[in-house]
Amino acid sequence: MSISRFQPNNGRLSHALVHNGIVYVTGQVPVDRTxxxxxxxxxxxxxxxxxxxxxxxxxxxxxxxxxxxxHAVKDFAEMNAAWDAWVPKDAxxxxxxxxxxxxxxxxxxEIAVQAAVRS
Length: 119
Known about the structure:
Elements: E1 3-9, E2 13-19, E3 22-28, H1 37-54, E4 62-69, H2 72-86, E5 94-99, E6 109-116
Parallel strand pairs: 4-5
Antiparallel strand pairs: 1-2, 2-3, 3-6, 4-6
């Protein structure tokens, strides 16, 4: 069984990897952390698009998404506005969203996904 790794980061992790036809994208956070949660979510989703494409998949093949919000009650609707504009309506993945104390104070959202490789 082979494992393909994409965009290793400082010897700590790969931003994506493929194993047995599944793409695993590690938790992605926004680069521009001055934006509100909707803007941060849009950034993260664009990054996920890039990683999935590099690994041979796309958002229509996402099986499961994990979303972490710094302020779930306050930011859930705005995060969902960005998500709803991005996710294909005919390919809705399973998803879990929870509140979490994220790695930096100005990170409002982090998202990880697992997706099938395009056949």
